[in-house]
TrEMBL record:
It comes from Prunus yedoensis var. nudiflora. Binds 1 Fe(2+) ion per subunit. Its cofactor is Fe(2+). It comes from the Eukaryota. One of its GO terms (molecular function) is carotenoid dioxygenase activity. This is Carotenoid 9 10(9 10)-cleavage dioxygenase 1 isoform X1. GO terms for biological process: carotene catabolic process. The lineage of its organism: Eukaryota, Viridiplantae, Streptophyta, Embryophyta, Tracheophyta. Keywords: Dioxygenase, Iron, Metal-binding, Oxidoreductase. Belongs to the carotenoid oxygenase family. Fe cation binds at H123, H172, H236, H440. It holds the Pfam family RPE65. One of its GO terms (cellular component) is chloroplast stroma.
């Protein structure tokens, strides 16, 4: 979680004369201010400052501050995004780093012309219709959470507001619809006072309250319509949209948090703690099933928020057979009603086998799951959806993902036709080096020049 960010880029270009394709691969570290400090010393220098007990974290803060003037590293290791023709890498604890998409050189901090001076969500969202970028930032001190709207040209922060939360919820992602921003205030929190008093810096409180806020795009704290929901930990939103008088939120919901890490005292399943042990849905009424089983696995979930009554309907979209996270959709449908979501699926038994899964909404009552299975001991990360140029339907496109085979130690890129999702990939591209497992990927069209 505190590792350096490294970008891995694959460039596809088509020769218009004969229709042939060429592929080029590049990688490079994101050179944040703290990366450069360690590079000058030619060794890791910052002490880890997220995990561990209270004395260890406080000591790391103090020593990092005394040595470098900063309490922790700026990671920039989670996601990449584009806005107004510029490209950025990002992690929750710092503002984005602008990247030269061809050389992968780090060009410096992006603070929106000096108007944004706090951490920045890893998943900003483009507002449907306007091209504006909706952003969010959390901090361990007040204001705990702020949202903002960046102009379509990326030059101006046209709206910024303190949401006036009374805790710092670790909100990894926000949602957008045509008119609203969607805020998740769930009981995974960052608390400096708790740390100073001997408790953990990051804690999930399964007894705490959970709510989803729906606010007008340019609203303030008083304009937020809060909906109380069942306590949960949700990092990623599949999509959110308006459906009549309801705001619908699809996400990947778990009942516990993998951050800051599992409680190894619960280890009763080989090397795995019980929260990583799969709960068998067919035995839900069996008294031998621990309440802890499978809590760290997330599942596709739906919240339907009735704007005129304040009522909420919740349900699992695909049951609990598949553990799903790191979702993606056809970006054209971000914030508007869609049918298809694509996720990485964890094989609960192995706790590692992954494959993309196509979650298709056919009608209000029937959900279908289609899977693309990888070879044994092959696992994926950093998947992205690539829409087909001139495509007429939502699923006209490809899922592209880095895949590594643990037996052969070969890394490849798979290109999967999303209209024939269970079929063999249309292409497998062998890479010249190992690509480590990472977080998020993105498809970004660029000029051939």
């Amino acid at each position: 979680m505190e590792g350096e960010g490294m970008l891995h880029a694959l460039y596809f270009s088509k020769d218009v004369s004969d229709g042939s394709w060429s592929v080029r691969y590049n990688n490079r570290h994101v050179e944040t201010e703290t990366f450069k400090l360690e590079k000058q010393r030619n060794k890791p220098s910052f002490l880890p400052a997220i995990g561990g007990d209270s004395p260890a974290i406080l000591s790391a803060y103090l020593l990092n501050l005394l040595r470098f003037g900063k309490v922790n590293k700026y990671l920039s290791n989670t996601n990449v995004f584009e806005h107004s023709g510029k490209f950025y890498s990002i992690a929750e604890n710092r503002i984005p780093q602008e990247i030269d998409i061809i050389t992968l050189e780090t060009l410096g901090n992006w603070d929106v012309s000096g108007a944004w001076n706090r951490p920045f969500t890893s998943h900003p969202k483009r507002a449907p219709g306007t091209g504006e970028l909706v952003i969010l930032g959390i901090d361990a001190v007040k204001p705990f959470m702020e949202t903002g709207v960046v102009s379509a040209d990326g030059k101006e922060l046209i709206h910024k507001v303190d949401l006036k939360l009374d805790r710092c919820s670790l909100c990894h992602e926000l949602g957008v619809t045509q008119r609203y921003n969607v805020i998740m205030d769930f009981p995974l929190t960052l608390d400096i006072n708790r740390l100073v008093n001997g408790g953990p810096l990051v804690k999930y409180n399964q007894e705490g309250y959970a709510r989803i806020g729906v606010m007008p795009r340019y609203g303030d704290a008083n304009s937020i319509h809060w909906f109380k929901v069942e306590p949960n930990c949700t990092f990623h939103i599949i999509n959110s949209f308006e459906d009549g008088d309801e705001v619908v939120v699809w996400g990947c919901k778990a009942l516990d948090s993998v951050i800051p890490g599992p409680d190894m005292s619960l280890n009763q399943f080989g090397w795995l703690p019980r929260r990583f042990k799969p709960a068998d849905p067919s035995k839900e009424n069996n008294n031998d099933i621990s309440a802890e089983d499978g809590k760290l696995f997330s599942h596709a979930y739906e919240w339907r928020l009735k704007m005129n009554t304040g009522k909420v309907r919740e349900r699992y979209l695909t049951g609990k057979e598949f553990s799903m996270d790191f979702p993606m959709i056809n970006g054209v449908f971000s914030g508007v009603k869609n049918r298809y979501g694509y996720t990485q699926v964890v094989d609960s038994i192995a706790s590692s086998t992954s494959e993309p899964a196509d979650v298709s909404l056919r009608n209000e009552s029937q959900l279908e799951v289609e899977t693309h299975m990888f070879e044994e001991k092959s696992f994926c990360s950093g998947a992205a959806f690539v829409p087909k140029q001139g495509g007429l339907e939502e699923d006209d496109g490809w899922a592209i993902t880095f895949v590594h085979n643990e037996d052969t130690n070969v890394s490849q890129v798979y290109v999967i036709d999303t209209k024939k999702f269970s079929n063999e990939p249309v292409a497998k591209i062998t890479l010249p080096c190992r690509v480590p497992y990472g977080f998020h990927g993105a498809f970004i069209p660029i000029s051939s020049q």
